[in-house]
Amino acid sequence: MKRRSTADVEAYRERIDSLLREAQYAVMTEGERGAKLGRAGIELSTSGPFSDEPYALGVVRGLRAVCEALVPIGKHAEAARTAHELMRWCKRYPDLESFEMYGLTVLGHAMIHTGDAESSLKILAEALAIAEREEDIRQQAACMEIMGIAYSASGQSERELPLFRKALILRRRAGDPIGVAYALNNVAMAEIDRGSPEIGVEYAQTCAEVIREHGIPVLFSAVMDTLAQAHAKLGNTQHAIEFFEQARASSREHHVPIGEGEALLNLGRLLSSEEATRQEGLARLRQARDILEQCEATALLSACHKELARVFESEGDLAAAMEHLKKHHVLELRLSGEQADERVETIRAVHEKSANSA
Fold this sequence. Notes:
This protein has helices at residues 6-29, 32-45, 56-70, 76-92, 100-113, 117-133, 137-153, 160-174, 177-193, 197-214, 220-234, 237-253, 257-272, 278-295, 298-314, 318-357. By secondary structure, the chain is an all-alpha fold. The longest helix has 40 residues, at 318-357. The chain starts with 5 loop residues before the first helix and ends with a helix.
């Protein structure tokens, strides 16, 4: 076999590095594409001039991109497996041990979705400690954001907002516009949840300004949904409808069907709550159902059937209401099974990590 020159190997390595930089950016903006690019980076890092001895940094960075991209799109069990694989590589190559914090952060996030917020907080505290040691303020912010979600899930919602605010400070210090936009939206949602929708509107509007200024269109749908939720709480129904419609249009434009389905579900829920717009709301709920079925979004589809059952019951069509209620219960059982599978995978990853650390 012809031996490659050092220049050829370096050029190949730079190709991988460039691909993985793109992957990490896509993780924050395009989800699935970030995972796809991360996998491509892993393949390149273990082939060609790296067939015998892998380009370990490329593999670890690729695994990071994949597992971080999987959580937001609901693939928590696969994210946990990938995070564990990332941590195994970190143990194999001590120079890369600091990358373990990314795997721990993903594991912590996945644990929330399996219903174990307490274990999540322990894992995230470990990740945060590494991030602080490495002086990685972006990862510190990421840990704090997920810890806020975990505290809320564990019934300690009063601890969520302070963490979101600290994360926002760190995101701004890092000069990370995408992170700042996410952080602003987190604060906005937390303010709405604690009964301050008018403050939520202010943060969401600031988030929208950051999105427009820095050209981050993929986040536009999320902040429009936040604004809609805030205006619905304030009783500004027409504004809420308009923002839900914008969230739907943005998701459709950027080919995010699950986002479009969720926007239609929220819009249908709002419209169907008033008798004058009930039929329009019903039409939106049916559109949401069709899209969410195609996405196999179990949790959202279950919620959609529950809403459809409520609407048909209010219309006096008990047979249709019962049909949708049955589908809701079937989906809830499926969701419980999916969460159990995710919990098994996540616990396995955490257990193996603990065993390797012993």
